[in-house]
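This section describes the prediction task in plain terms. A model, or a person checking by hand, is given the sequence of a single protein chain and must write out its three-dimensional structure as a string of tokens. No templates, partner chains or ligands are provided. The sample shown here is typical of the held-out split.
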Amino acid sequence: MRKPLRQFILVVLCLLMGAGAALAENIVIKGSTTVLPVAQATLEAYMKANPGTKISLSGGGSGEGIKALIDNSTDIATSSREIKGSEIALAKSKGINPTATVVAIDAIVPIVNPKNNVKDLTIDQLSQIYQGKITNWKEVGGEDLQIVVISRDSSSGTFESWAELVLNKAKVTPRAQMQASNGAIVQTVSKNKYALGYIGLGYLDKTAKALTVGGVTASAKTAISKEYPIARPLYIYTNGETKGETAKFIQFILSPAGQKIVAKEGFVPLTDSAKTPVKGKK
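The expected answer:
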């Protein structure tokens, strides 16, 4: 083959490859650190099955994900809380129509250091501890040790769910140590005998001890039945009804294969997947 012909063929091939790359759809996902393991595992499986698709993922908290959706800088916002009415109003003022899809169920689990002998706390005890009204473990059946309160930061959907379900929207004590992720809370509690924190069910490991709440253990069964009192849905938000690769990816998460990944990551798979109109809280 003559050199000019070979060069021509190479140019054509490069142009075709470039066109294929240009046609490949990129999906951007931002938001909740609680939903992060589910998003990470499902996108890896999806990209393996669909090698032409590129998906970028980052955390930062539910609030940051919803903000990115409102600013039109993400295709999917992951959130461990329901979108607020004020966020919906702001989104619609910018031409964004937030649409919620529930992808899993989660239980928020209070955790302590494995050396702590406390096994159970009631909702009221947890509330009083996080408000700073109970400050010593001996007040709840433990040793005479000061309680080190560990909390998620205010951009976290888990923080807001905890504030609603446990604190009834009362303020967290200013003495609380605020952490940016579930993983950071696990690490902090695992190194401090006096600490009390809370995390999503999927983040439980042997380095921290899960407490029962009012005698009920957090599990898939008790979360779905609502017997466990600190359970909530996990969401993804999009701008209206999705199309193309984004829609296919969401369908994969809701499929039996995707829900199997949800369970593998330690969260509760859906019995009935549902895309619902957004009803934000005031």
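For orientation: The first strand starts at residue 26 and ends at 31.
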